[in-house]
Amino acid sequence: MYWLHQSALYLHIVVGVIALIMFWIPVVSKKGARNHKRFGRIFAIVMYTVGWSGVLMASFDLWRPLVTHPVAQSTTAEAQTAISAGIRASATFLLSLSILVLATTRHGWLVIRHKDDRRALRRPAHVALCLALLGAGLTLLVIGGSSGNILMLIFGALETWLAIGFLRYSFKAELAHPREWWVEHLGSLIGSGIGVYTAFFVFGAARLLQPLLESGSFAGLGVVFWVAPGAIGGIAIARLSRKYRRRFSAEPG
């Protein structure tokens, strides 16, 4: 199990770095053009790899935390319990981010492929993934509320909001305007970026910048890095969605 966990970790790191760069190519490329479609497909494959490798790592950490993260034999039972609790807390958040990446990537891909025909979004696999995102969000809200963890509260609210939005879009009787699928695709893309950039800051950059963030001048700034992708991304989704809904609603037919 340890080596399988480590293999998933290395894969997650490699594809995660690729995803950080790949995210911007569909964003800046001309919408609907060949490069946008080509790199969009590649981005989806990369994000699925990021998501599933994260699910695998988090599942192992939740199941056997001291197997995936061995400690010295001299470690006391009390210390082992505390270490296990810390690993499981991080794994819970990583699992929620992984589900966020998978759900937003799949939703955005299905929306753009099927546009006005939303039957594919109502199939059991996609509905189950959206419900998993909803469950992850509610779990983070409960944990964040009981522990006062701002990071979990923000992402619990974001994941819950996105999951409800995905399900509502999939099952509502009629689209509000002919190109509502475009707005939905945009929001899903930003949501996937939130997941991958938050994972980078929380599990990657935070460790690299730890000496700086623990210094007197920058102490406490770590939480800013952690919540920034979710806060900025959530605001961007809300504002851009409102902007384009108004624009498309004003267009004829």
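That was protein one. Protein two is written in the same sequence-then-structure order:
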Amino acid sequence: MKKLVLFSCLLIITACDPGETLVKYGGGNYVWRLVEVDGQPVTFSNEIAFGPHGSVNGTGPCTQFTAGQRAPYPWFEIELEDNITAPECTFSTQERKYFADLKDMQIVEVSGPNMVLTNEDGREMVFVGITDGG
């Protein structure tokens, strides 16, 4: 019983460590562009950046959004907020799918200027670093 309690406490402490998010593992080093979803090229403009304390900011051809991503690396769980704005145009089908796909991803891997989001169903989103995020 003591071992179970100790193990549970260690898991809670590790899960709460803000330094163990994808930013620590290179996710904050770049502003990222989605280039491929499930093997298909992405044709709309987009950017996403991961900042301190789990902050996420992004843009699309006519959207701006903020979100949270506080899951410990390598887990990915985006919390899209209600302030997705499209001031002068309507969301395209691709953008709606983009937000749905982001919410569907569960695991993140960052390797230099490459970032891949995946889920247990075998889906994949591939991003490349386009600018220095620091």
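Residues 18-132 form a domain with the Lipocalin fold (CATH 2.40.128.270). Keep this in mind for the problem set.
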